[in-house]
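BUG-245 | component: ligand-complex export | severity: low

The export step for nicotinamide-adenine-dinucleotide jobs runs without errors, but we want the raw record kept on the ticket for reference. Input record follows.
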Amino acid sequence: MKVGITGAEGHIGTTLREGLGPEFEISSFTLGPQSFDSTVADLSNPAAVNEIFQGLDAVVHLAADPSPRGSWESMLKNNIAATYNVLEECRSSGVKKVVFATTNHTQHGDTMGGSPEILDMSRRVMLRLNDPLNPTSLYGVSKATGEQLGRYFATHHGVQFVGLRIGSTGRNDTPRGSEPRPSDDYNMAMFISKRDMIQAVSLALNIDRDFTLAYAISNNDARIFDMRETNDVLGFYPVDNSADY
Ligand SMILES: NC(=O)c1ccc[n+]([C@@H]2O[C@H](COP(=O)([O-])OP(=O)(O)OC[C@H]3O[C@@H](n4cnc5c(N)ncnc54)[C@H](O)[C@@H]3O)[C@@H](O)[C@H]2O)c1
């Protein structure tokens, strides 16, 4: 299967370029030139996106401003407009599927503490995929919009869409910092290891469903996301657990 990865130079892009390489034929899309082969395009510019996905079977759309503190201008450009351009280009080029990196931040307003990356443990509940959206930032709003763009393109334009509500992953592949941090409860709940991330995206590329939402977190004892529907629809059974780090 020929798979394009946008944001291929970023943290998750690097994990997936390396981890999906053996199973899929990967093409990389980046904002600037890289030390590896890539097509350079600012995805917020429709002219730059024109025909770049020709011949691909699927696109894993990671490119975005990933900051929960990002400005509205950046969200509109890099997250909302770019996601529309990617979906529209996939539709017009006949790319069958888009796997979209959405976020835990779309949903956990009911459980947040003082910031999007602090959980109020006194309000700890298990959230389910179909619970009402409750974004904790403009970033969360931008990703909730991406999920709905995906639903629209899946329902009305035949582009299969898998939105993975990713928890929290970092280059050092651990939920813990060197010192205790206010965000520790959040990280223990939201951690996803690189190994589990690769598994989730591989499954998303292989399933045959029109529209799917799923959680991409590890099998954390401290999770606040109910994984049962994700287990069923995606077949995703993460193997790592933040408690083991
Ligand atoms: N890392 C996490 O814990 C996490 C959690 C939830 C969701 N996500 C989502 O996963 C995706 C990847 O996250 P990451 O941690 O690898 O982020 P990252 O910042 O390392 O990578 C994102 C890449 O997107 C590129 N990009 C941004 N705007 C662009 C544009 N207009 N055109 C082309 N490229 C553009 C950037 O150059 C960057 O390399 C993002 O969509 C993010 O919102 C990440």
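Assignee comment: Attached the raw record above. The mean pLDDT is 97.
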